[in-house]
Fold this sequence. Notes:
Elements: H1 2-7, H2 12-64, E1 76-82, H3 91-94, E2 99-102, E3 112-118, E4 121-127, H4 130-177, H5 199-249, H6 253-281, E5 290-294, H7 295-309, E6 315-321, E7 323-330, H8 331-347, E8 352-358, E9 362-367, H9 374-379, H10 398-409, E10 412-418, E11 422-428, E12 433-436
Parallel strand pairs: 6-8
Antiparallel strand pairs: 1-4, 2-3, 3-4, 5-7, 7-12, 8-9, 9-11, 10-11
Amino acid sequence: MSYLNRFLxxxxxxxxxxxxxxxxxAISAATVLGVFGAALVVERVLVQEALNGEADHFWANYxxxxxxxLPNTNNLRGYMAQxxxxxxxxxxxxxxxxxxxxxVCGDDARPVVHISDRGADRLYLVFDEVQVSALAFYFxxxxxxxxxxxxxxxxxxxxxxxxxxxxxxxxxxxAVRNYDFNAGKxxxxxxxxxxxxxxxxxxxxxxFNQFIDRMESFIERERTFTRNASHELRTPLAVVKANLxxxxxxxxxxxxxxxxxRMSRTVTDMEALVETLLILARESESKLSWxxxxxxxxxxxxxxxxxxxxxxxxxxxxxRATGLxxxxxxxxxxxxxFTNLIRNAMTYTESGKVEIVIExxxxxxxxxxxxxxxxxxERMFEPFYRGHDRSNEGYGLGMAIVRRLCxxxxxxxxxxxxxxxxxxxxxxxxSTRFQxxxxx
Length: 440
């Protein structure tokens, strides 16, 4: 078994060649042994039985008629030694005992000889197998040779078909071996140019391509996380650093307290930002805590927080709901989405109102702020895009984060805006529990 394992080492193609070579050798050996076995059976069984029958036939007739002629045909010749007279017997047969054997007579002749006794007489039957061997060749060896050639041809066809069947596997192996994962360019493995289609190979190609997509998404997620973290954390860190310098300069307790409160809000914002970035960097939602989230209560809480974080004396922030809406989702994710939307609406509304409308399967955030042009509206969900109004703080990641979270959880995000009039953003949930308020 160890020798066979060593013999079958190597690639799939070399293994296939070795297996078929081994098969051809085994078939050839079996065929040759079969031919020699058939020849042995012919000589030892059939010829011997035929000569036994000839001898019995002669002795039966000779006992009745001593003048019965000896066999003398093209293939069989008979000799008789009566008593001790061997004059009619060839010299090579004189000293041979009774039995069945080959006898050397001359340089090239090795006939099959059958010797039997009856009383003082001895019968020699010499069988010339030249013509019989020729017949055996034409009617025995020739068909066997034809069968052997047919087996060789079928084995060759089997090898060709087998190699064609595994050729895609070999090319797939070469493609995977030569794939450069460090190049930064993740091209999919494509073998569609082959006319043959194998389910197993197609499954392998699909699995490798899914792995490539998955790895590419991992790398892109890592790049996005690094980009977002470095960009977004720079601002609050700068604020903390500046306020630390102010604390060192101010002696007035009231002024120091305002600086501390500003730093506290900044640290809170940083915590929320880090949590958001970590959620976006996660591979799946399986590790997030899912629960039934009452949208009405959550948005009311978010509005209170946004009012303190973005004070706007000339902006009215209100909530209007047609009923109670519950969704099953990670509560922190829902809070991040609506915190960004409401904060964004308050930030870009100098005066007027921001209204949150809660309906059976959607939430709308409307504002009467600066609005956006059509070109700004098309790019509002791109990372770091801030539109025409750059007077407010931020790096334009809030709406991009909202888009990514909605896409990840299957929520539909829609937006309408008009420059100088305001913006309306709608979040449509795929599944909700809705309890309509009783009409007054």
